[in-house]
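User: Okay, second chain of the day. Same drill as before: sequence in, structure tokens out.
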Amino acid sequence: MDESLRNRVAERTTAECLEEFARAEVVASRVFDAADIAADPVYAEREDIITVDDPDLGPVRMRDPCRDACLDERALGYRWSAEGTETVVLRSRVLLDARAAGVPHPVSGVWTRITDLSGLRAFAGQNRSLGYEGMLASHTSHVPVINEVFSPGFAELARCARLIEAVEAAQRNGTGAVTFEGEMVDEAMAASARLALARHLTGSPTATVP
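Assistant: Same drill. Structure tokens below.
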């Protein structure tokens, strides 16, 4: 069947193919780039593309970030809250699976309330506490907040350097664990600190706009 369909399509123009698909009530569209997607009647009918007012860029046409979240909510039956407590277990499970699979730099999903930057900050902080290394941004205004939350500050990086020094000094003396600034630390903590310093030096991005 695939070969037959391939030959049939090859013998017709794009417009003829789309017209024939429409007569057969088959959902199909011609999509090549963002402009095509924005003008596509199927996307319009599904209300996948929305217009958002950006303070710097003005009206911006973009994919609705709420659709996937709403689909998850309906499929799983949970009730969304700004605190995100209903999805902590889900996000933790996804992160554990990503770590087990060796996926580098796991990122969490979007914050769908575009103008609620304080809510975004709290949600991003929760994701960082869980162990995510970044998150998707549903709007360009979210990128600075996400980068700030997920990027270590000077004090945190300085502490990482001191922790590494303390652990390595203990190791030279034959000790595996040592008290550092009131906490027990060992090589596992030092490895995490080295990773944080290395990542900061390379300037890896923490926010991604889908």
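The radius of gyration is 24 Å.

User: Thanks, on to the next one.
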